[in-house]
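Lecture 7 notes: from sequence to structure.

We start with a single chain of 1031 residues. Read the sequence below before looking at the structure.
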Amino acid sequence: MPEAHDTPAPVRIATFLNVPHLNPAIIFFISISQFQEFEFLKRQLDMKPTNSFEAKFQRDLNRIIDSDRNTRKRGLQKLVEDIPWNSVTKSKDSNEEFSSFAGNTLFRLLLGTIADPVEKCRELTLTLLQKIISLPNENIGSVELIVELTKKLTHRVGEQPFPEPAEELRLQIVDILLSIQLYIEKNCLNGPEVLSILSFMLEAISKALNDNFPAVKRSCAELVRNISITSPHSVRLHLKSLLKGLAVNILHQHAKTRVLTLQALGQIITCASQAEYESVMAESIIPIFSRLLPDRSVTVKLELAQQAKNILINRWQLYRSTQSYIVAVDLELITILLLLSGEDTGSEIAIAATESLQEVSASWDSSLQTDSEHTTPNINITDGELELQKSSVTCTIDTPKDISTYESSSHRIHQLIQANFKDLSSLFIRGIEEWTTENKTRYLRGFSKLIEYGEESVLPLLPLILTVLGQQIRQDSDSAVRVAGEQCCVSVGQQAGASQVLEVLLPRLLGEVPGGDTSSQRTCAARLLTHTLMGFPLYRQHVKQHDYQHLSQHVDQHVNELENEIGIEQPLQSVESSEDAVESVERIASALSDTALYEFREVVLREAALLLVRALHNTYPKESCQSESVQKSILLALLYLTGKPPGEEDIVHDVAAKELRTFAVLVAHNMPSNANSIATTEEEAVKRLLQTHFQHLVGRILHTQLTTASDPEALRALNPRWEAKSSGKAAFEALIRNSASAAWAYHALVLPVFCNQVQPPVKPAAGSAEANMQSYAAQRGEEVLPNTVSESVDVRLALLALLEGLIRSAASDWQSGSYLAASAESIVKEMVVPNLVWRIGRVESTVRKVALAMAYGVLKAGALKPEQLVKTASELVPLIVSNLDDMESTPRQIACLCLTVLFERLRGGFGDSAVREVYPKLIARLDDSNDAVRISVCGTLQMFLQCAHKSCFTGTVIDYMLDQLFIHLDDPDPNIQQAVYPVIVVAANAVDKALVLRKAESSKSSHRSSALCNRLIVEVQGFEILEDSTE
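Now the structure, written as tokens:
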């Protein structure tokens, strides 16, 4: 039984099998519908072979139409192997015969085996057809045969599911179609038949593009690309179906497939009519190109840049011929090129995209723009995160009308971008506002390129651009987005310049925009200014280059030659110090010195302000160091940033302190001065710089115009009324700690601040509700303080601690010590004494401790003159003595040290009543739980026994004291014994020697060792016993 075939009602022409000289080309399977072809073949039976190739391969041709599959396969295999495909064309005589055999006899026969049920037979058939089509003969078959072949081939791949199940054979079919297209192109065939061939191909290819086999996708894309070049009209009829298939393949995993698909897309869009161009680009091409921007393959991105360039150049040539103008989708393609040029600087992709932009700009001229002026409408900024001041900006962008004067391709790019800057900016801003990090980063990098090319076109849109960038450089943004946004800010500074940027950002930084005085908006303004600031020097260089190039166009060639001959340099480098730079630095520094900025204590704002300070003196080192006003402003800002109010645990303060030292060293090396006067350490540099501007800094922190020469009454009334977390208090503390010597030099201005701030609150009136509440709370052991009082306590404690450190620093500096002596009395009477009074509360306990430390510092330094000490002793001594019973050991020890100094300096100045009141409290400290206190009080007792006439100690006083001293002379701790021993010696010499000797004799029997008693007796009697018989 014959095998089943695709054609219905198969009929075998068996009557011709025994005919002599049978032409094999007529024996094959036909359908009833192919009756006319059957009649033609029947007429061939009586003809003898007229071709040597037909006679030679007659047997193999007979095998092709045999009913046995293996026979057909052997016949096709033999034809593939035995036909001399390469050598036959070398003989001119055989070309005609071989063309007739291959392009007519064999070609017709193979048409019937394209749909053979055996896959191998179909494969060999397609191989033979490929070889026939690829022959370099001009007369391979007729156009009708090619049409028939195209129909049969396209039928195998033009439906889904594909009639041809084997993917390798579908690839062969598409390759044959590609060869047919090349054959038509090579031989310049045309006419209705050719159009039908191309139509069949395109219709089938639109389906074959969906093939899962990547090689088929690539061949289909290549075929579409070739037909788009040779027959745009045919492609236009199938444009939408082809785009649909290509759009699916553009995201294929194989880079080679994506590249060929891109090439097909780039070519297919040239076939669109002018009416279809915009819609096709907007709906298909631009979205497809946008999907390839994140592609990881360098080859794909290079091809993307190439196709975007080709489309633009092609359309602009068409616009020029039809007197049309650039449309929105053209700007989308420019955006894609800018995005690719924004890749890593120096990368192959960025270089290729820039070169494509240069070629595109070379084919552009101003005639392609619309006749209307490019003006930006009124821009109302209403962004909530960084609402830059609402401004109405209308600016006409001058589009160059004559590009012949610009020979450099980079100038062409600048002109192209400037002419379309507003529309391009809107496209980039839309991309920047996307939610994905990758897209934001890519569009920000491209936006930086756009700004670089835009130059002065940036100015009308500057508020909007800064608003958008402010949202991208926030701290909560991704690091890649933030870095890209910061680079955009640098580009803005480079193109817009300092004056324009400062007009927009400084009011926001200062909170002068209505409704915009918030921490977040000030933070954004500081960050924007930090990074745009870095582009300001580049702006000055760019302006000079532009001015020079503009001027050089009008200079005679002979003048240029003369300049080169005598060596005149072109002024392309920016001047390091200029009036514009100084003015910009002063404006920024002045804004940073606004103390209201630091009332916001959010860490992000303080960090942004610190980075702005650093960027300012790093970008303009000479301008920052040589201008006193700038120095003062930067110092004030750094003091506010260095100050650390309670509760702030971030690192901004430490970094600001380091930045203060860096700036001080920078100023020391840039200021003209004697080499010997340059500070050797960072700390020394800070002290000198702060001392230079101390009075100005104190005045700004205190918000006063008073100086040391002002009225004393006005100075005494100086009271900033700080709260515990006040930024002014923190800055004041930072100033005093870093320049203690300068603070003493201006003590007339500084000490009133301490005095007014450390005064304790006034007690409530006796019997009042507040007084009763505090009394009951104290009895219950509770601490109940109004908020205002607790705030006051914190401020007092902080400033008292600061003043105590200031006093200690004066003790080690003779010059500061002289200032301390001049103000010691007021310090003790007005600041120490009021804070030694006992008050409830743990904080008040700490206040007393610090006040004691201050008193000890003043007394130990000897700052109080004797007459001043006598005046203050009546108030000071009782308060210090009262602290001998404090719950904490530290106040008790400091009180002992203070009394030691007082008793020593007021020797002989105390009376009988004073001695009798003080001695029990001193003796009680011998039994203190803290050994340091016990040792300290021994020193106090030595001075105490000499502070009054000996008659004041007679009787019970000296008797009780000696009893207690001899008890502790036998203390288990040798250190206590050694501390008590000199006290008893002083008692004997200053008060009553006989009583001491009697007490010593009586104590010898009760002590564990009589050695110290014997030693004491000897020392008191004034002679030495050579041998102690009692031991």
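Confidence is low (pLDDT under 50) at residues 1-47, 371-407, 546-577, 1025-1031. Keep this in mind for problem set 3.
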